[in-house]
Amino acid sequence: MDPYEIEFIGENRIASIIPNFSYNKIYLICGEFGPFRAGLPMNVPLWLAVMLKQKQKCRIVPPEWMDMETLENIKEEEKKSRFFTKMPNEHYMIEAKLILGTAAEDIPHAAEIKTIIKDIWDIRMSKLRTSMDALMKSGGSYGRLDHLTMMEINSVKPLLPDAMDQLYRIKMMSRKTIPASLNTSTLSQSGGSQNS
């Protein structure tokens, strides 16, 4: 999956807004939303919330997880644990980028929140690189991806398959140094040839 596809999926998350206009229901492919009543909170897809905010038609209500105390706790837990902690939202980076980029004035302590989210991302990316390094050094053939988000997995996608392929080739080359009588059955089962 490409980054823009992941962002597209993240934009379909439901966000809460407070419109400053009144309008009947709107019917979209993803469902119906409304009626819109000025001053009354309602839920819409994130992409619609961003579009309405850009047209100054609403105020975006920050998600529950987007507050200083919650994010500081997540950051501390992420630092302490050697495993990846479960994030409050599968698309936290996309949601944060869109909301903080469009409606920073609607979010209390927006600059600090942006910094904490970036810190969490950096900690998780560091853990991911360390995990990949350990996987490569141990010659492992698989790794667990518990609690990683789509965006985080996608960030290592260009490197990981090639690295795993190289590890597999190294393993196969080391098997070729075993006497031919022991090596024949392994290569014939894997579809390889002894002459390559």
UniProtKB/TrEMBL annotation:
GO cellular component: CMG complex; GINS complex
All residue ranges annotated as the DNA replication complex GINS protein PSF2 N-terminal domain in the record: 2-61
Subcellular localization(s) per the UniProt record: Nucleus
Upper taxonomic lineage: Eukaryota, Metazoa, Ecdysozoa, Arthropoda, Hexapoda
Keyword Nucleus: yes
The species this protein was found in: Brenthis ino (lesser marbled fritillary)
Family annotation (InterPro entries): GINS_A, GINS_bundle-like_dom_sf, GINS_Psf2, PSF2_N
Protein family membership: Belongs to the GINS2/PSF2 family.
SUPFAM superfamilies, A to Z: GINS helical bundle-like, PriA/YqbF domain
Keyword Nucleus: yes
Name of this chain's protein: Probable DNA replication complex GINS protein PSF2
Pfam families named among the record's database cross-references: PSF2_N (PF25005), Sld5 (PF05916)
UniProt keyword list: DNA replication, Nucleus
GO term, biological process aspect, one: DNA replication
Residues in GINS subunit domain copies: 65-167
